[in-house]
Amino acid sequence: MTNDSANPEEFIELADDVFDQLSEEVLDDETYINSLPVVAIIGRPNVGKSTLFNRLVGQRRSIVGDIPGITRDRIYGEVEWQDRMFRLIDTGGIVPDDDAVIPANIFKQAKTAIAEASAIVFVVDARDGLVSLDEEIAEFLRKLNKPVFVAANKSETDRVSQQAQEFYQLGFEGVYPISAEHGHDLGELLDALMEKLPLVVARKPQNREINVAIIGRPNTGKSSLINKLLGQERVIVSPIAGTTRDAVDSVFTATDEEGNPIKLRVIDTAGIRRKGKTFDMEEKLSVVMARKHIERADVVLVLIDGIEGVTALDANIAGYAHEAGRSVIIVVNKWDAVEKDGYTIYSFEEKVRMAMRFLEYAPMVFISALSGQRVVKLPELIAKANRARNLRIPTAELNTFYSEHLEQPKATTPSGKKVKVKYITQSNIRPPTFVLFSNSPKQLHFSYERYLINRLRETFDFYATPIRIKQKGRGK
Questions:
Q1: Is 321:294 a contact under the CB 8 Å cutoff?
Q2: Which of 37, 130, 135 is nearest to 89 (CA)?
């Protein structure tokens, strides 16, 4: 008997609840967190406050939906920008004159957040334009002796971005057209915030755990690999595909070649099957959870069965990690059981590269989880990948890179029109993200973006990590 008739949304909601519980982290330095300057996000209902909050803190903490009033309590998170840190508060949508119990309590929570805050981000909807409720909230905020930054959200197009200028009527110093959903143009807003906030340098964690997710088809040896890494039977190993249902966290410390400690938190996820073969409710839930745990990871090991070879499902599973922007290492298991000649490893790698063209940056390691062959190399490779995804290139080095690689050859658009690239800046890490400024509003040709990524990778050694390129041209 199957459960295919069940509503798939129930699985996702249940997975979200379980994942949120698993993802809660206890702050190990409460004094440091309490010392951070506070920024409160304020605005009327359904303008995208929670979407902006989630984007800035880098994880799904606030529930996002089209129904106004989903967020009711204050939700806290920490934001790092340009090696500085501040605390961010998400609040519910304000309706100042609504006497109903829930809206009144939301307003009370928002006022508490404002009292804590050193600065306010006032979120408005650029598509809707200036409405009377925005003006009421602005009147309330003007009475405060605190800097207010107007974030004109949903400014995905040039036309809407231009319309956002009307919010200067509210009387605040700066209006910043942004798209919280797509992450566009947040840098200018954050830079302006930094000028008003007290300076608190981002804490450099000492020997922070690197979160590693091991993903793959059922029975590729994920549990055997984690047991070999740990040196103990931490998880059940069975020839029956699908033995692992829950994601199991295991923390251990390895050492690199110089004897430095590498602390890893390894997540053994359930094997991901084709949708047509996931019948049981528990197994459907485990598949959803496996994808959720990819989002928890810094580095993902994509495990391939060396005996069976690469499949379309392997590529599909690897795509989840790539789309999530995680660093990826392709691990071919059971290599000791493969009949080999002088060309076997090259032939196998070529087949994998053909099936996973999008993972050209991912190194490939051939191991045996059963015998331990080359398993000892994995922690150091994981640490190297994690360092690369957290790498921020100083502006001076990017300027040198620009003069060497971007002035020539000239970029083009798909129509063949020549475009001058003005400069490049790094806007984010995890994964490394760069913004390319040009003199054209049109998208640059994909071959130029590929050229740029290749040059960045070889110049700065972005090992095993994807690189994101955002383009900003004249008029954008």
A1: yes
A2: 37
In three-state secondary structure terms, 53 is helix
DSSP letter for each residue of 400-432: HHHHHHTSSSPEE-TT--EE-EEEEEEEETTTT
CA dist 13 → 2, 20, 233, 292, 463 (Å) = 20, 11, 32, 12, 35
- Per the omega criterion (within 30 degrees of 0), is the bond before 409 cis? yes
Sequential DSSP letters for 326-351: -EEEEEEE-GGGS---TTHHHHHHHH
Measured between its terminal Cα atoms, the distance across the chain in Å is: 55
H or E segment and range at residue 294:
helix 281-296
Instruction: Mark which of 196, 219, 247 sits at the end of a domain.
Output: 196
Do 166 and 39 share a structural domain? yes
CA-angle at 85, arms to 79 and 86, nearest 5°:
70
**Tens-place pLDDT, residues 186-201:** 989 999 999 999 888 7
For the chain, residues with pLDDT lower than 50 are 1-6, 8, 11-12, 15, 18-28, 60-73, 100-103, 205, 233-247, 277-279, 282
Q: Clarify whether residues 192 and 331 are in a common domain.
A: no
Do 468 and 431 meet the contact criterion of CB atoms below 8 Å apart? yes
Q: Tell me what pLDDT residue 287 has.
A: 61
Pairing of strands 433-438, 421-428: antiparallel
Q: Which of 389, 424, 454 is the last residue of a domain?
A: 389
- What is the spatial distance between Cα 195 and Cα 84, in angstroms, rounded to a whole number? 11
- How much is the pLDDT for 292? 76
Beta strands in 191-319 (DSSP E): 210-216, 248-255, 261-268, 299-305
For residue 384, the domain's CATH number is 3.40.50.300
CB atoms under 10 Å from CB of 235, counted, come to 19
What is the model's pLDDT at position 363?
Answer: 97
User: Side by side, which strands form the sheet with 433-438?
Assistant: 421-428, 433-438, 468-472
Looking up tokens 């459960």 gives 3
User: Which of 33, 52, 126, 59 lies closest to 90, judged by CA?
Assistant: 52
What is the bridge-based pairing of β-strands 148-153 and 174-177?
A: parallel
| Per-residue pLDDT tens digits for 373-424 | 999 999 999 999 999 999 988 878 888 888 888 765 555 555 666 777 777 8
Q: Which amino acid is at 440?
A: S
